[in-house]
Amino acid sequence: MVSYTLAPFQEPRGVMRILQFIFAICSFATTVNFTNTLTMTNCDNGTTTRSWPLEYPFRFGAEVCKKSNGEPLFISANVTSDAQFYVATGVLSLLYCVFIIAVYAMIDELYKSKTEIPLADFMLTTVLAVFWLSGSAAWANGATALKGVTDPTELKRSCGNLPGCTVTVDSFSRLNISLIFGFLNFFLWASDLWFLYKETIWFQSRQPASSPGV
Known about the structure:
Layout: H1 12-32, E1 35-41, E2 49-55, E3 59-66, E4 72-78, H2 80-106, H3 108-113, H4 116-149, H5 152-158, E5 166-169, H6 173-197, H7 201-204
Helix pairs in contact: 1-2, 1-6, 2-4, 4-6
């Protein structure tokens, strides 16, 4: 019979893992499930309405209208690498949380007795914290680029401000939420390092030895 303990989840290191698990799901779910639509009406010397989807992995490119000099206006924003790195960080974090939660629950005594395991936990958490910072920063840059090329005011101006030209794009609020989750994940993983550091031999070797009883 497999034995397990919930004692680690009454400590900060266990609680943090549960929070990291939840917010990792939220971060990549809000990104891969995000959909938006750019719609342009009467912007090409006609009465047509055309729409283009904006969705993961955000490899967007389209000829949207003719400029005033007759040349086609092509807009593009390929932020696939930024989005995929961000989502991959979320998936890796989720998998690691599942693994380490199982370690805490099933072999916590071994975790505490083997100095190598807390050190590995600390170092892998450090790597994932760096991934969250760099991934969130890259995704914020990609999201800004995506918003820039679909800016309605700029598109109308580039198309010659034709009478009746209407450009609409749906809300980017869910995309903004995914960015908030990203930086929140960085905070969770970085702050968890202190609790994990206290489990390592680096911290324990610095503690003064207990005085023998009299």
